Fold this protein.
Amino acid sequence: MDGGRFIKEFTKGLWSDIPPFRFVLGLCPTLACTTTVRDGFGMGMCLTFVLVCSNILISLLRKVIPDQVRIACFIVVVATFVIIVELTTQAFFYPLYMALGIFIPLIVVNCIPLGRAEAFAKKNPVFYSLADGLGMGIGYTMSLTSLAIFREIFGKGTFLYHHIMWSGFEPFSFLQKPPGAFVCLGLMLGLMNLIGGGKK
Amino acid sequence: MEQEVWSFSDYLLLIVSGVLVNNILLIRFLGNCPFLGVSKRMDTAVGMTFGVIFVLTCVGPITWFVEHYLLVPFDIVYLETLAFILTIAVFVQLVEFVIKKMSPALYRGLGIYLPLITTNCCILGTCFYNIRFKFGFIPTIIFSFASALGFGLALIIMAGIRERFHYARIPKCFQDTSIGLITAGLIGLSFYAFAGLAK
């Protein structure tokens, strides 16, 4: 166990490999669940939980799972945790559950948990898989929340459902509409490339 | 489950709604990863389209049967997510075996897209919508087909536009995915003009 490597695996998810900007996976919730800050943050948290748990379990089972049927095994592991998240949000965060709707069960096919299982957890020890999952999950939450902050403040004039803009402010409702989500994410991706020194 | 009577115009509206008004890609945001991944060239986009249309039209009714004749009678609806994704994964794997044996030519064309289809959220998403909207059996088939058609339409339009990017001078930081997303937004805007045609 090596603390330095732990930090490295953790921080790569926060900037250098931050999903969904640096590798383009898990776009559907990024577009659909970022109309308000609460939805964006909630979605990010749900995904973080699934990602951390599935990474740990797959890393523990990595010597048991046969290579030919690994994708099916990964899907079953991820689906199990998604059901846990689904039932928990339904029981304790009902408004969030209603707002996210179909996108909570769709975490199964989100590609990020499966992608990390395939690329990282199946060949690394538990400790580093935990760091990887946590970093990626928090990075994803940050991306979703920042996009949601932009879309909620300018598209609705609110922040966490409190009005914060001046009284004569006319919200750009385009940003709240589906096409606005695509344009917003596209511009943000371009901006990230500009700051991060172009394509890697 | 009670069956309401659907007239011909209801089915027609369902197709219009699925393909244009509530386009699964641009309005409902399902299946965006393959949308950006395979839309760089027209031939891959066409291959993916046929794969999705075939798989979704078959899987939609199958998951409907799984829901109403397996999960509901045994009162295990909370396992819906797991049951559906397994159904899809098994079906896609079976199709792959069958195509490989029966028609190697088709397999060369379609084979590489089949594993991608398992994790395409427009397949699983449409299966969920079939259940959430409380569709009967026939509407399930129609809606699954219409969704897949909408996916294909948007994908092929996008591939056509993206092939032209080679001749455009795009700023370096906006190349590839970034400009793809902005283009998708503009296509979505044009699809928005159909709003109000059907619910």
Q: What stands out?
A: Residues 70 and 76 of chain B are 8 Å apart (CA to CA). Chain B has a mean pLDDT of 88. Chain B touches chain A through 47 residues (CB under 8 Å). Chain B is about 70% helix and 0% strand.
